[in-house]
Design brief:
Pfam families: HTH_3, MLTR_LBD
Radius of gyration: 22 Å
Strand content: 5-15%
Order of helices and strands: HHHHHHEEHHHHHEEHEH
Helix content: 40-55%
Number of strands: 5
Structural class: alpha+beta
InterPro entries: Cro/C1-type_HTH, Lambda_DNA-bd_dom_sf, MLTR_LBD
Shape: elongated
Oligomer: single chain
Strand order of the largest sheet: 2-1-5-4-3
Number of domains: 2
GO molecular function: DNA binding
CATH class of the largest domain: Alpha Beta
Protein name: Transcriptional regulator
Length: about 270
């Protein structure tokens, strides 16, 4: 196992905790009440007049819902060792996790599902996803496919997405929220890359006899001459104790209309 954290060089834990508190829009008093402390002590910690214990750093991070990687950064800034390991996904210690994720997304078939890491590298995908990726060039599929590139690159799925501008806006907003929570140069570089891709005009389509009513923004994508509609859901692990596990996300695509569900069912076998 390896441990990686991204503490800001030369910056104490106080300013970092204050930044997280302000980001969460929580007053010193409210945070103190939640953490069984006092507003005075929180103030002293944030200004550097008091050094918090390791337990206090973890408690405050928990009440501020700080991501696991950033909790390690807070500990380092306070002068303590990182608390959460970062285990490579290929490590035998995560065999059961990988097997469970594979079984989960395979059980979701024929509907598409995939697993991505913190920078949207695809670490597992089922046959529903592979079906949608038919015709995508190998240059986007190897050596490690990236979900954002696959979706937004002009040689990827972008030309097939009927509501590309809406779906692109949704994905970029999602990345912006993640960048606000994680000091990740790799994630920011990916965002700048995919945001710069050219955006073709949305494909016109005939109005259906009865306009569809969606309960969430759909992904409307062409496949073999028909338009399939999906709504997506993202799941993460509850109370992760490892940086790698904390940054994994399982995205599933649910048919947004009966026609899409019927077509996917016809592909089973």
């Amino acid at each position: 196992m390896t441990i990686v954290a991204s503490a800001t060089a030369g910056q104490g834990v106080g300013p970092l905790l204050r930044a997280w508190r302000e980001r969460r829009r929580i007053s010193q008093l409210k945070l103190a009440l939640r953490a069984d402390s006092s507003a005075r002590h929180i103030s002293f910690v944030e200004t550097g007049r008091s050094r918090p214990s390791e337990e206090m750093v973890l408690r405050l991070a928990d009440h501020l819902d700080v991501p696991v990687r950033e909790r390690n950064a807070l500990l380092l800034a306070a002068g303590y060792a990182p608390h959460y390991p970062e285990t490579p996904l290929a490590d035998p210690a995560l065999d059961a996790l990988r097997d469970g994720m594979e079984r989960l997304i395979q059980g979701y078939e024929p509907y598409p599902a995939l697993v991505v890491d913190a920078t949207y590298t695809v670490v597992a995908a089922n046959r529903g996803i592979i079906m949608l990726l038919e015709g995508v060039p190998d240059s986007l599929l190897t050596p490690a496919p990236n979900a954002m590139r696959l979706t937004l690159h002009p040689d990827g799925l972008a030309p097939r997405i009927r509501n590309l501008r809406e779906w692109r806006g949704h994905l970029l907003a999602q990345m912006e929220r993640q960048i606000a929570l994680h000091r990740s140069d790799a994630l920011r570089a990916l965002y700048e890359e995919v945001a710069a891709y050219p955006v073709p005009e949305d494909r016109p389509e005939a109005e259906p006899a009865e306009p569809a009513v969606y309960f969430a923004l759909p992904l409307r994508i062409e496949h073999e001459g028909r338009v399939l509609s999906f709504v997506s859901s993202i799941s993460t692990f509850n109370t992760p104790m490892d940086v790698t596990v904390a940054e994994l996300a399982i995205e599933t695509f649910l048919p947004a209309d009966p026609a899409t569900a019927k077509y996917l069912q016809s592909q089973v076998g």
